[in-house]
C-alpha cells in the first residue's frame, strides 16, 4: 500500500555506529503508532504506518540503559522520562534533534504533508528526512553536521553528547521567542541560532525560522535516518525550496517547546565581526554576561575545516 492511499509510511534507519533508541510522540488528536519507543541497533530499520491527518514527531535517544529484568532505565540524551523503552505519550527532554510531521490525506485529496527537522529544542545527533513516491517539491531536510563537536561551551551538556538551545541554556525571552518577543517581528535570529543555521541551513534554528525550514510533499512516504551516509548528506543539501508560509493550505508545524536561510556555502554576516574583533557585544541574562566571541571563532574554524 502506498502512502498516498493510506497516509504515510515512516521508516527509521540507524546508520550510527552505536545503538539509537527512537522515540515517537503523536500530537493531541492523533492516534498512537505501533510503538512509542524502541531499540534500533546499528544498521537496523523499522517502519510505521500513519493514517491520514496524523501529526507528531520522531527523535533519537542515545546512551540508554534499560534493566533486563525490570525494563526500567533512562537515556543520556533525548530521554522521555518514562523510565521505560516505550515513551508512552511523553516527549523528548531537550536537547534533542526532532523530526516533525503533519500528514495530509494522500495525493488525490489536495492536502499536503508538512515536515521539518528542528533544532529549537537543541541537538543530540545527526538526522535527515527524505521523501519518496510523492508529488511536489518533496525536498530532503535535516542536519548532517556533528554540532556536538562545534557546540559553544555555554551550550554544551552531557559531557559533550548534546548541544542545548540558547533558550534552554539561558531562559531569556529573547532566545525563547516568548513574552515581548513572542511574534515573528520581535523574535529575530541570535548569535547562537545562527551557529545552528550555518551548520544546518535547512533545519529550524529558532521558533520563527519557517521560511527556510518547513517543507511540503503530497502522498509521500518518509525515511528518517540517524547519522546519515555521505550519499544522504549530499541529498540533504540540494537546492529544492522549502514551503513559504502563507502559500500553502495549512500553517507550518508548531516547532519545539515554544510557539511555533541560507546556504551552507555562505557564512553569516555576523561571523566576520568576531574574526576581526569588530564586535564587543555581550549577551546578558539576569545580570550574567556571556561573551560568545571565542565560541563563534572556534565554530568558524571547525566549519571551514569541514568545507
From TrEMBL:
Residues 229-262 are annotated as: Disordered. Transmembrane segments: none annotated. Residues 229-241 have a biased composition (Low complexity). SUPFAM superfamilies: Osmotin, thaumatin-like protein. PANTHER family: OS03G0233200 PROTEIN. This is Thaumatin-like protein 1. It comes from Fraxinus pennsylvanica.
Amino acid at each position: 500500500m502506498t502512502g498516498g492511499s493510506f497516509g504515510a509510511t515512516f521508516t527509521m534507519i540507524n546508520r550510527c555506529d552505536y545503538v539509537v533508541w527512537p522515540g515517537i510522540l503523536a500530537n493531541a488528536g492523533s492516534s498512537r503508532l505501533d510503538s512509542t519507543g524502541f531499540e534500533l541497533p546499528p544498521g537496523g530499520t523499522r517502519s510505521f504506518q500513519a493514517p491520514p491527518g496524523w501529526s507528531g514527531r520522531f527523535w533519537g535517544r542515545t546512551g540508554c540503559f534499560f534493566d533486563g529484568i525490570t525494563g526500567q532505565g533512562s537515556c543520556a540524551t533525548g530521554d522521555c522520562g518514562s523510565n521505560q523503552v516505550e515513551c508512552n505519550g511523553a516527549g523528548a527532554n531537550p536537547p534533542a534533534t526532532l523530526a516533525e510531521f503533519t500528514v495530509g490525506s494522500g495525493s488525490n485529496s489536495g492536502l499536503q504533508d508538512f515536515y521539518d527537522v528542528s533544532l529549537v529544542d537543541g541537538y543530540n545527533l545527526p538526522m535527515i528526512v527524505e521523501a519518496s513516491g510523492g508529488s511536489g517539491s518533496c525536498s530532503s531536510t535535516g542536519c548532517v553536521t556533528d554540532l556536538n563537536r562545534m557546540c559553544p561551551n555555554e551550550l554544551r551538556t552531557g559531557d559533550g553528547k548534546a548541544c542545548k538551545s540558547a533558550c534552554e541554556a539561558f531562559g531569556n525571552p529573547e532566545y525563547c521567542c516568548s513574552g515581548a518577543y513572542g511574534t515573528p517581528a520581535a523574535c529575530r535570529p541570535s548569535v547562537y541560532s545562527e551557529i545552528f543555521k550555518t551548520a544546518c541551513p535547512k533545519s529550524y534554528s529558532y521558533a520563527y525560522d519557517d521560511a527556510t525550514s518547513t517543507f511540503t510533499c503530497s502522498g509521500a512516504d518518509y525515511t528518517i535516518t540517524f547519522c546519515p551516509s555521505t550519499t544522504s548528506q549530499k541529498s540533504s543539501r540540494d537546492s529544492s525550496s522549502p514551503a513559504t508560509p502563507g502559500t500553502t493550505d495549512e500553517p507550518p508545524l508548531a516547532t519545539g517547546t515554544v510557539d511555533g536561510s541560507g546556504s551552507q556555502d555562505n557564512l553569516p554576516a555576523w561571523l566576520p565581526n568576531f574574526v576581526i574583533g569588530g564586535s564587543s557585544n555581550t549577551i546578558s541574562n539576569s545580570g550574567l554576561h556571556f561573551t560568545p566571541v571565542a565560541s563563534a571563532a572556534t565554530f568558524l574554524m571547525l566549519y571551514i575545516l569541514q568545507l
